[in-house]
Write a structure and sequence with these properties.
One of its GO terms (biological process) is bacterial-type flagellum-dependent swarming motility. The protein is of the alpha+beta class and about 400 residues long. The protein has twelve helices and twelve strands. The strands form three sheets. Strands 3-7-8-5-4-6 form a six-stranded antiparallel sheet. The protein has a four-stranded antiparallel sheet with strand order 9-10-11-12, with no helix packed on it. Strands 1-2 form a two-stranded antiparallel sheet. A hairpin with a 2-residue loop joins strand 10 and strand 11. It is elongated.
Length: about 400
């Protein structure tokens, strides 16, 4: 009957097979086993160029009998694979949720920049810098000189924070008051007029934020209170996780920071809807006619300059310098639609909108104010179309 190898003998033979290329001292256990293998009753082992090979069945049993501890001693400790985890900052939102929130607030940034450009009559650019989940107290410590608006979010139960840097806020207020926006880094309490102007800016932001959330879940954002210091704002416990959306605002040569703080517990009921695929499907299903009333409302509220022009005249610099009180300047009236000279009429004016003549009429009085009565609608000039020349 074939002899069964012990564990020590198996390990000794495996060590001998793996160290063929190296010169080692003879192992007593191996020599003893080789002597036993030479007896007629024992199963013969094959020898090839100094290698001792057991029968295949025993080699398989030997390979299967190797323990993890023996492998560790032979090959040394392997590299440990681990991922750092901070229990003070648990990740409650997946990467897909954060990606959806980033797409949503990039859409909000585009809407809000367009609204501010129209309201401030200035070039505006808003970019989403980052969307991350942080503890609430860490977010509060990062705020230094900002105005904070605490928002009620319905139909969800909870509050959010809309924060804007004082520097860019005073630049926008200066722009609204007729300045260039170069207010500098002013840190002080707002006056009553400045509070009203700042609140108007925030109302534009909340309206655009509602529009951005509509494809996911219709939400209403209302201002609950306004605070100038983060020490008096506590909407959730300090160790609770919040979603921090950090944005950068540029108005010409001036820039500042703006952020939105959304507690995790606030958006937890609608986390199932925060997927990139659902967001894209919702935005694609939105019908074009829904934008019609919004576009018409914005166009109807857009102010354009309208000038009543009596006529035109060309003067030399000498004639211009000789003008005195009581001087008469002959005005040239615009021609008719067919190009024929138009007879002059007293008090006939052209209404110019955007450097183009749109209407013609007559001046008069309406009560105590000057007015223009429109008599004619000017047909726009035909556009010149460039045709490709045929060779």
């Amino acid at each position: 009957m074939a002899e069964v190898l012990s564990q020590n003998e198996i390990e000794a033979l495996l060590s001998a097979m793996t160290t063929v290329e190296e010169e080692e001292e003879p192992n007593p256990a191996i020599e003893e086993r080789m002597n036993r293998a030479a007896s007629p009753s024992a199963p013969q082992a094959r020898s090839t160029e100094g290698k001792v090979l057991l029968p295949l069945r025993k080699r398989r049993r030997a390979a299967a009998g190797m323990s993890m501890q023996d492998s560790h001693l032979r090959f040394g400790p392997g590299p440990l694979s681990y991922e750092p985890y901070d229990f003070r900052r648990p990740d409650k939102l997946s990467k897909e949720h954060l990606r959806s929130l980033q797409l949503l607030h990039e859409s909000f940034a585009n809407y809000f920049s367009s609204s501010l450009a129209t309201y401030l009559r200035a070039q505006m650019q808003i970019e989403v810098v980052s969307v991350e989940q942080v503890p609430y107290d860490e977010y509060m410590r990062s705020i230094s000189a900002s105005l904070l608006y605490i928002l009620n979010v319905s139909p969800l139960s909870g509050q959010a924070i809309f924060e804007m840097d004082y520097g860019i806020l005073f630049s926008m207020i200066d722009r609204l008051l007729g300045g260039t926006g170069a207010a500098g880094k002013i840190v002080r309490d707002l006056t009553d007029i400045e509070k009203m102007l700042a609140e108007n800016i925030v109302h534009y932001a909340l309206s655009d934020l509602k529009t951005s959330w509509d494809p996911i879940n219709p939400l209403m954002f209302d201002i609950a209170s306004v605070e100038a210091s983060s020490q008096f704002v506590q909407i959730v416990p300090g160790n609770d996780t919040v979603v921090l959306v950090l944005m950068e605002i540029r108005m010409g040569d001036f820039q500042g920071a703006m952020s939105l703080c959304i507690p995790y517990l606030l958006i937890k009921p609608i986390l199932g809807k925060l997927s990139a695929q659902r967001w894209f499907i919702s935005t694609n299903k939105k019908k074009e006619p829904m934008f019609g009333p919004q576009l018409a409302h914005r166009l109807n509220s857009t102010r354009v300059p309208c000038i009543a022009r009596l006529g035109t005249a060309r003067l030399t610099m000498g004639q211009l310098s000789d003008l005195k009180v009581g001087a008469v300047i002959p005005l040239k009236m615009p021609p008719n639609e067919d190009g024929s000279p138009r007879p002059g009429h007293i008090a006939t004016v052209d209404l110019v909108v955007g450097n183009r003549t749109k209407f013609r009429g007559r001046t008069g009085l309406r009560g105590k104010n000057l007015a223009v009565q429109i008599d004619e609608i000017v047909t726009p000039e035909a556009e010149l179309i460039a045709h490709k020349e045929l060779n």
